[in-house]
Amino acid sequence: MKSRHLFMLSLGGVIGTGLFMGAGYTINEAGPGGAVVAYLISGLLMYMVMACLGELSVVMPVSGSFQSHARKFVGPGTGFMVGWLYWMSWVTTVGLEFTAAGILMQRWFPDVSVWVWSAVFVVLLFLLNALTTRGFAESEYWFAGIKVFAVILFIIIGGAAMFGITSLQDRATPFFSNFTDFGLFPTGFSSVLVVMMTVVYAFQGSEIMGVAAGETENPGRNIPRAIRNIVFRVLIFYVLAIIVVSAIIPYSDAGLLESPFVTVFDMVGIPYAADIMNFVILTAILSVGNTGLYASTRLLWALSKDKMAPAVFGKLSSRGVPMYALLVTLAFSLISLLTSVVAAETVFVVLLSVSGLGGTMTWLVIALTQYKFRKQYLREGNELKDLKFKVPFFPYLPILCILLCIAIFVFTAIDPTQRTSLYYGFGFIALCYLFYYFKFGKKKADSPVLAAPLPIETAEKLVP
Question: What whole-number distance in Å separates Cα of residue 27 and Cα of residue 34?
Answer without folding.
Answer: 7
